[in-house]
Amino acid sequence: MYYLFIHFLYIANGMSVRDFMKILEVKRYSDNTINSYASIVKLARHFFKKPLDQINETELHRYFYFMVHTKKVSYSYQKQIALALKLYYKEMFNKNINLEFLFPARKPQKLPVILSKKEVMLLIQNANNAKHKCMIALTYSAGLRIGELLALKIRDIDSDRMVIHIRNAKGNKDRIVPLAEKIVGKLRSYYKEFLPKEYLFEGQKGGKYSASSLNKLLKLAAKRAKISKNITTHSLRHSYATHLLEKGTDIRVIQKLLGHNSIKTTMIYTHVTEPTLLNITSPFDDL
Q1: Are 26 and 85 part of one and the same domain?
Q2: From the record, what ranges are coiled-coil (predicted)?
Q3: What is the pLDDT of residue 285?
Q4: pLDDT-based confidence at 100, cuts 50/70/90?
Q5: Are 42 and 18 in contact, with CB atoms under 8 Å apart?
Q6: Whole-number Cα distances in Å, 282 to 147, 212, 278, 285
Q7: Distance from the CA of 232 to the CA of which of 90, 98, 120, 262 falls in 20 to 30 A?
């Protein structure tokens, strides 16, 4: 059935990015991956001004040089470009191209931006309305990725069992995380005021709330709260994990709560909350 579907796409009116997205949907890639890969392909097609099946590997190398040295893309995005284009050529043209050697040789070890508990409260207090306050509070209280928060449906909040059911998260995995007691009342008040129909947080015209709007409202709340740190919604997730670790929560429990496949990913938080380092007194204080 899958190969019949692919054949249909080939004989349709040319190969479009939408066709690529349909293939990824059939192969059960996550919505976030599909949208990210589609965006990367669109940018590449715009750069070359011609179909990608007419591009040779030398031209692709030139494109990578442009993205790294002119656009200054991050390590992770550089790797994502290579993975997306490699998959696009494979699925759309049945062509294997070697782009792995264009992965950065070493990932920079940058520590995540962490908010204090006081700063988290200031963010929530300085949000515009009950919806914005709940979005920030829920993201932090459950350590959610932005896509996980925006994909939540009303039925995913189980106040009887006090859990949140996160569906089709990164890697197409479901997981259960605790629902904070203090947020239940806030969610009920928000629900009565805004009456969402399907998704827990919806845009003005219904449907999912947009990621760009969420990041924008977070920046505005940070500005009003006079928080100068360069934060994103992911900073709330980082802060959740760090605060759990500071409370003595086992690192493997945090791994499960965050939905990390590898403990190595979770270990980054040990670098920002190492007790033996944080409790060191500076010799300046002895002067």
Answers
A1: yes
A2: none
A3: 58
A4: confident
A5: no
A6: 41, 41, 10, 6
A7: 262
**Tally of domains in the chain:** 2
Please say whether the beta carbons of 266 and 241 come within 8 A.
Answer: yes
The full DSSP string for 193-236 is: HH--SSBSSB-TTSSBPPHHHHHHHHHHHHHHTT--S---HHHH
110, two tokens: 């940058």
How are strands ordered across the β-sheet holding 157-158?
157-158, 163-169, 173-178
Q: What percent of the chain has pLDDT over 70?
A: 87
* Model confidence, pTM: 0.68
Question: Band of the pLDDT at 10, cuts 50, 70, 90?
Answer: very low
Tell me if 110 is assigned to some domain: no
Alpha-carbon span 20 to 28, nearest angstrom:
13
Whether residue 280 is predicted with pLDDT greater than 80 in this model: the reply is no
Whether residues 94 and 195 fall in one domain: no
pLDDT at 217 over 50: yes
CA atoms of 138 and 132, how far apart (whole Å)? 10
Determine the structural domain holding residue 54 and report its residue range: 2-102
Are residues 140 and 62 located together in one domain of the fold? no
Catalytic residues: 145, 170, 234, 237, 260, 269
- Pairing verdict, β 157-158 and 163-169: antiparallel
- Give the residue from 75, 102, 129 where a domain finishes: 102
Q: Please tell me whether residues 31 and 83 are part of one structural domain.
A: yes
Q: In sequence order, which residues have a C-beta less than 8 Å from that of residue 193 and are 6 or more positions away? A: 130, 131
Q: Which two tokens stand for residue 242?
A: 């760090």
Question: Where residue 24 sits, what CATH number does that domain have?
Answer: 1.10.150.130
Residues 157 and 238 in one domain: yes
Count the neighbouring beta carbons within 10 Å of the beta carbon of residue 227.
20
